Amino acid sequence: MSTNRLSRSTHPHLSLHPERMIQFGEGNFMRAFVDWQLQQMNNQGLFNGSAVLVQPIEQGLGGLMAAQDNLYTVLLNGIMQQQPVNSREIISSVSRVINPYTDYEAYLALAEDDGLEFITSNTTEAGIAYHPGDLADGTPPKSFPAKLTALLHRRFQLGKKGFVIIPCELIDRNGEKLRQIVQQYAAEWNLGEAFLQWLEQENTFCCSLVDRIVPGYPRDKAAELEAELGYLDNLMVTAEPFLFWVIEGPAWLAEKLPLAEAGLNVVVTDDMTPYRERKVHLLNGPHTAMVPLGMMAGLETVEDVMNDETFSRFVQELIAEELIPMLDLPKEELLPYADAVQERFKNPYIRHELTSISLNSISKFKTRLLPVLLKFQQERGKLPELITLSFAGLLLSYRGDLVARQDSPEMLAIFDEAWSNPANFVQAILKDESLWGEDLSLVPGLAEVLASHLQKLESSDSRAALEQFVS
Ligand SMILES: NC(=O)c1ccc[n+]([C@@H]2O[C@H](COP(=O)([O-])OP(=O)(O)OC[C@H]3O[C@@H](n4cnc5c(N)ncnc54)[C@H](O)[C@@H]3O)[C@@H](O)[C@H]2O)c1
Ligand SMILES: O=P(O)(O)OC[C@@H](O)[C@@H](O)[C@H](O)[C@H](O)CO
Known about the structure:
By secondary structure, this protein is an alpha/beta fold. The chain folds into two domains: about 20-270, NAD(P)-binding Rossmann-like Domain (Rossmann fold), CATH 3.40.50; about 275-465, N-(1-d-carboxylethyl)-l-norvaline Dehydrogenase, domain 2, CATH 1.10.1040.10. The chain is about 45% helix and about 15% strand. It is built from 22 helices and twelve strands. It has helices at about 30, 35-45, 60-65, 105-110, 145-155, 175-190, 195-200, 220-230, 255, 275-295, 300-305, 310-325, 330-345, 355-360, 360-370, 370-380, 385-395, 410-420, 425-430, 435, 445-460, 460-465, and strands spanning about 20-25, 50-55, 70-80, 85-90, 95-100, 120, 165, 205, 205-210, 235-240, 245-250, 265-270. A six-stranded parallel β-sheet has the order 5-2-1-6-7-8. A three-stranded mixed β-sheet has the order 4-3-10. Strands 9-11-12 form a three-stranded mixed β-sheet. α9 (about 255) links the parallel β11 (about 245-250) and β12. The longest helix is centred in the middle third of the chain and has 24 residues, at about 275-295. The chain is globular. The N and C termini lie far apart (about 55 Å). D-Mannitol-1-phosphate binds near residues 213 and 359. InterPro entries: 6-PGluconate_DH-like_C_sf, 6PGD_dom2, Mannitol_DH, Mannitol_DH_C, Mannitol_DH_N, NAD(P)-bd_dom_sf. It catalyses: D-mannitol 1-phosphate + NAD(+) = beta-D-fructose 6-phosphate + NADH + H(+). Pfam families: Mannitol_dh, Mannitol_dh_C. This is Altronate oxidoreductase.
């Protein structure tokens, strides 16, 4: 095997493009999602642009990226439209990585480049946050929004045009939240009314929703893959082939950033709410529904669930009979999406652990499944059987003796207290508005159905209980 590290000398034919995007975050997801998409546009001659990456925190991948001339391989593994996909591509759409903690001036100098038009980010769910100690004193502030404020202010001082800003963090209304924190710093740092006006008039903050499962560096197969590729690559990223990006922004953005034109599954819309609902209820909802029942049956991964006859029927019927009918979206959009989700869940190349999805399951149930349960009851005057069975499984799993619980100490204490009196458990837990945002003991029939499901789950096992409900 070659011991050469991937570089521009091992691959001299790779294209170079001018910098057009500033990207906060150099992690696996962004490199396999945004930068991979830039590469697809460049391959087709539609963009001619690269991204300059900024490390949001002091420790990062800048050194490793520089050691291989900012090149890395994206490996797409999975099934798309019933066909296996196993592709490998060297991504050359990243120009360089700036560490603002070691070279703050290089970071601020990005404001001078008229060619830079876009800003993207993924700084994890923790990144779009206000940090009270951040100052405009010429040293890198801690938070991402404060760093961005400093850069935008420099751009404003130079009298230049603003940016299209598209955060990818998995938080609701991410673009609005980012703009609001930037405005907060601008006010706190006394940057003046004219800057606030420039911020509003010259910049476009978009909200966005991202969807691609990116397991990251293939640790267990790295040596084998390097032998196959013929070069060493410390930054290989594996991802599923499926991709979806919804950007809530002006219609002209689709032309300025021609992702859809490049054949990528990207939508620019003036309202991303329906897409968010679709993803949260049809992808994240089944994930959360399968976790307690699957774990109690000894299944370990999403793929295990989908390869199990009873459990895969559970997922299929949950989606078709209880989730899709409750979504206010055209069926011709929901059905293919639901099929694609189930294909993605079956991906044999991705080990998606049920335990990792189980983290903070109560709050996930509240956003992903409870709204559907309530709507079903209101519209049909009865409760959905599969969601309530999964709800009972979730409550039982929080007793702590059947499967490992992963939640905050406060949450576990609430359940320990409620389970200390099993006869009153269902009433006590449903009444707790801090868990559900309302008193669920008032939902007609819910306490009775849950008590009955709990009894079934305790007297048999989750598979036997499921078999009574799936066809
Ligand atoms: N991996 C996936 O399948 C996937 C899919 C969709 C969304 N996401 C989301 O993308 C985010 C990043 O995932 P990843 O797989 O790239 O992880 P990663 O560990 O490879 O990268 C994390 C990135 O976030 C930055 N970061 C970490 N902590 C931070 C903090 N406190 N403040 C600011 N920046 C911080 C790091 O510098 C790095 O750039 C996660 O929050 C995840 O929810 C991941
Ligand atoms: O990331 P979490 O823990 O909030 O949720 C677990 C999964 O439902 C989630 O990671 C999905 O796989 C992801 O949202 C797909 O884009």
